[in-house]
Every structure is written in C-alpha cells, then in structure tokens.
Amino acid sequence: RKEVEQDPGPFNVPEGATVAFNCTYSNSASQSFFWYRQDCRKEPKLLMSVYSSGNEDGRFTAQLNRASQYISLLIRDSKLSDSATYLCVVNYGQNFVFGPGTRLSVLP
Amino acid sequence: EAGVTQFPSHSVIEKGQTVTLRCDPISGHDNLYWYRRVMGKEIKFLLHFVKESKQDESGMPNNRFLAERTGGTYSTLKVQPAELEDSGVYFCASSQDLGRVGDEQFFGPGTRLTVL
C-alpha cells in the first residue's frame, strides 16, 4: 500500500462546479497535512494546511478525519484558474510524503 | 522576500557525466530539503539538512548522489556518474524551524535534468 494515495483523475468540470478530492495516508503517526497545488512544469505551492477541526479559505475547504486517515479538499464555484494538479502532502517525522496528485481541468 | 532559488533550471548531460545542482533556500530557513520527481511518478523525498547537518538522507537512491550544505546556507546536489534513470525534476524546499513537526515547506522552481 502506498503511503499517500489519491485518485489521479483527471477531473473535468465546468466553471462554477463544486469538486471534491480525497486522499488517504497510511502512517497514523502523521501530524501535519497539506494540500499543495502544482501548475504544469512549475513547483508545488502551498494551497492550505489541513487542521483537525477543518478549515476554510474562500472557496476552498479542507477536512481531516484522523480515525479514517483521510483528508479532503472541496473547491466551490470552480474557476478556470483552478486548473492544476492538487497534491496531498503528509508529514512522516520531519519529512513530507507526497501523493501522486489529482489533476483538475475546469472547462469554460 | 526572495523565495527558494535553484540553478540551473535545465541541464542536459550524457550518461556517465557529472552534474551539480544548486539550491539557495529562503534566508533564515534552517531546514533544506531535496526532492525528485521522475516521469509519471510522485515527488519523492531525497534528504533533509538542518543547517549544515544531514538530518535524514534515507531517500538518496545510491552513492552516486552526494549532497552538501557547507556553512548551512546554500546546498549542492551532485550526481556522479549520471545514469539514464536519474532524469527528472529535482526540487529543493526550505522551511523555518518553528519547533513544530512538519512546518510548511517552500519549494524552488526545480532543475529539470535530462540524461541522454
């Protein structure tokens, strides 16, 4: 079993749609969770950290379920500019383990 | 504030040659990480420096890879001799040491290495 798993997609959605990504991780000792966004041929950039209580940043909502070792990202009112690969990232000790990423294409 | 920078942005070399990649972290960041993404695979951890010390190098694929961070500022990653399977994008990241596990890491633009 991979340490961090994601549905690779692609998710093709129309502008304005709501889309949700899921991620599961295998190490129950992980304490830090992040969603990074990576545009084509660019570096990963932090989208948001994921907290136990869940957190929201504008159109983006992240949730963590420690019991199920599951993280989610919800994007509301999708924009064309949201098209990218979304990487689920989990710490293992001091280091990060990346999921394979989920590709999102928002279509006009 | 300047972000993480990496040099070169691209490198094309022949199998058996040597290549050295450089990373300049964000000023004041004690933690420096190297990652690699090979075609079609996820980003994989290579190693982690805290200042000039190697904290964890469990991700280094073999002894053809040598990373240094003399003086605790910039870091270099040398591949010698390069093999075809070393092709990929090498990312560097840095983070502050705020005493928490897994602080946010800021990534550089990466070096795209092609070994022919």
Describe what you observe in this structure.
Chain A has strands spanning 4-6, 11-14, 19-25, 33-38, 44-50, 55-57, 60-65, 70-75, 84-92, 95-98, 102-107. In chain A, the strands form two sheets. In chain A, strands 2, 4, 5, 9, 10 and 11 form a six-stranded mixed sheet that branches. Chain A has 108 residues and is an all-beta fold. The mean pLDDT of chain A is 92. Chain B has 116 residues and is mainly beta. In chain B, the strands form two sheets. In chain B, strands 2, 4, 5, 6, 9, 10 and 11 form a seven-stranded mixed sheet that branches. A four-stranded antiparallel sheet of chain B has the order 1-3-8-7, with no helix packed on it. In chain B, strand 5 and strand 6 form a beta hairpin. The model of chain B has no long low-confidence stretch (mean pLDDT 92). The chains are: A mainly beta (108), B mainly beta (116).
Topology:
The complex is a heterodimer of chains A (108) and B (116).
Chain A: E1 4-6, E2 11-14, E3 19-25, E4 33-38, E5 44-50, E6 55-57, E7 60-65, E8 70-75, E9 84-92, E10 95-98, E11 102-107
Parallel strand pairs in A: 2-11
Antiparallel strand pairs in A: 1-3, 3-8, 4-5, 4-9, 6-7, 7-8, 9-10, 9-11
Chain B: E1 5-7, E2 10-13, E3 19-24, E4 31-37, E5 44-50, E6 53-56, E7 65-68, E8 75-79, E9 88-95, E10 106-107, E11 111-115
Parallel strand pairs in B: 2-11
Antiparallel strand pairs in B: 1-3, 3-8, 4-5, 4-9, 5-6, 7-8, 9-10, 9-11
Q: Number of helix segments of chain A?
A: 0
Q: What is the mean predicted local confidence, pLDDT of chain A?
A: 92
SS-based class of chain A: mainly beta
Which spans of chain A have pLDDT < 50 for at least 5 consecutive residues?
A: none
Structural class determined from secondary elements of chain B? mainly beta
Quote the distance from N terminus to C terminus of chain A. 37 Å
Number of helices of chain B: 0
Element order of chain B: H for helix, E for strand: EEEEEEEEEEE
